[in-house]
Amino acid sequence: MEQSPVIKFFSGEEIPVELHKVRIVQKLHLNPIEERLGAIREAGYNSFLLSTRNVFLDMLTDSGTNAMSDNQIASMLRADDAYAGSQSFERLQEAIQDVFGAKYFLPVHQGRAAEHIIFQAFVKPGDIIPMNYHFTTTKAHIEIPGGTILEIYHDDAVQIKSTKPFKGDIDIEKLKNVIAKHGAEHVPLVRMEASTNLLGGQPFSMANMREVRAICDKHNIPLIMDASLIGENAYFIKQREAEFKNTPIKDILLLMCGLCDVVYFSSRKVSSTRGGGIFTNNVKYYDMLKDMVILYEGFLTYGGCSIREIEAMAVGLRETQDETVISQSPSFIKFLVESLDAKGIPVVTPAGALGCHVDATGFLPHVPQSEYPAGALVAAFYLVSGVRGMERGTVSSVRDADGNDVLADLELMRLAMPRRVFTLSQVKYVLDRLDWLYQNRELIGGLKFYYEPKVLRFFMGKMEPTSPWPEKLMAKFRADFGNSL
Ligand SMILES: *Cc1c(COP(=O)(O)O)cnc(C)c1O
After folding, report:
1. Which domain holds residue 161?
2. Are 43 and 86 in a shared domain?
3. Rounded mean pLDDT of 73-80?
């Protein structure tokens, strides 16, 4: 029987023990804080612009950074390099059929390519797209063809501290109202995102998905799932939804996909390789999308991926059925979240998928939202630890038509936990330095832009501190830690 890797110790503690061994290693650099100050200044206080040369633990994202398994790497050697009709693609198609129960599959080079193709095909100007929550690239790809996203999560889903097991659920009443108000003809699809990324990796329940499906059926609206974090969502359904307590992950995955008309994913998340894909059991949708894959991505048996990636994707998708594989990251996240919570450090609860989400509003109540508290917290934490997190707050949103900042619902510092990459002592280092930073939080100030691109500004934008707070924070670090790294 597959088990989650949380082991009961004789001491009574429950520890997420690594159920894998590390056989390829990469040397990391923990540079002195003085060098880190130079690096973050150079990067415009934007963690996306740091070189990994200056990063100790890279917790920016789980995208393309999960550790591959021995079997994935081995599979790359048998890649059947052919432009068309590759046997590697046949193996991937079989994996899609076995793991997700879908007959038709279109490979693409990464998740946003799937979004580009699906939303170009489904969305017309004036359309409304209801969803549990948006993702940055999703929103952009819906707005390009003239659609508007509508987030219809339950009001309490954005509460930082919660015991609600499924914050990623769609509010069914809101969904009914949206369809009644705009008319089903202006709602070309409903989108459900597994382990809702920007809500803090929060899952939806199977019960909710079934209800959404029933409404879609009633109005003849397709249900589309963003399955980039489907494995973790399936794991949370097993952990948190009584009906599925004894259901194998394999069956939960099939049930979830069986409720959807079209599913797409970023393989950078699901299976630790580059690539992505779209699958369906409806030949009408397959035909509608396949020409665009050929036009924008590549021939239907590689879709912009290398054949090696096609092989590794097939193996990675099969590994999603293994509970010890998909529970590793959530169990480390749970350890970190619960340890931070016990120290009174504000974090999103319950622990979700992909990372630990520190609440910058609660951490830095003295930094106004117009000075980007989440961005400031990410920069400050990098400075004192060498750990690179990601801003998920107002810096990650876009200005309105009048050029005003749109203040985000949540100001979060995300510390991603890629699968099987970090050890528990590294996670304990994160905990320790965050604890120190929290004790010294009044030293942290705000940020302002001095270079701001119009599109997805969080990737390339540059900022500067509103006062010389980084130098003060560094001086306090030296006073407390002496010459230690
Ligand atoms: C990462 C992600 C995407 C985009 O995938 P890429 O491979 O980075 O293009 C889309 N949706 C969700 C939910 C994601 O997490």
Report:
1. 70-321
2. no
3. 96
Same domain flag for 132 and 279 = yes
The DSSP secondary structure of 335-380, one letter per residue, reads HHHHHHHHTT--B-SS--SSEEEEEHHHH-TTS-GGG-HHHHHHHH
Domain shared by 47 and 91, yes or no: no
Task: Tell me the best of 110, 137, 226 to mutate to test the pocket of ligand 1, counting ligand atoms within 8 Å of each CB and taking the most.
Answer: 137
Spell out which residues line ligand 1, taking CB within 6 angstroms. Answer: 63, 110-112, 135, 137-138, 193, 197, 226, 228, 266, 268-269, 276
195-250 tens-digit pLDDT: 999 888 999 999 999 999 999 999 999 999 999 999 999 999 999 999 999 999 99
Select from 270, 288, 321 the last residue of a domain.
Answer: 321
Angle 87-100/249-258 helices, nearest 10 degrees?
90
- Residue 37 Cα to ligand 1 middle (Å): 31
Measure 222 CA to ligand 1 centroid, in angstroms. 20
Residue type, position 250, single letter: K
Please say whether the beta carbons of 224 and 191 come within 8 A.
Answer: yes
Amino acid in position 246: N
Count of structural domains, the chain: 2
Q: For residue 340, give both structure tokens.
A: 């931070």
At residue 61, what are phi and psi to the nearest 5 degrees? -160, 160
Place of tokens 């879709």: 303
Last residue of a domain, one of 290, 321, 352: 321
Taking a C-beta distance cutoff of 8 angstroms, is the pair 263, 100 a contact? yes
Output the CA–CA distances (angstroms, integers) from residue 351 to 167, 203, 334, 408, 437, in the order listed. Answer: 11, 10, 5, 21, 21
Which pLDDT value is given to residue 4?
66
Cross-strand bridge partners of residue 129? 149
Residue 43 makes CB contacts below 8 A (sequence gap 6+) with 49, 50, 462
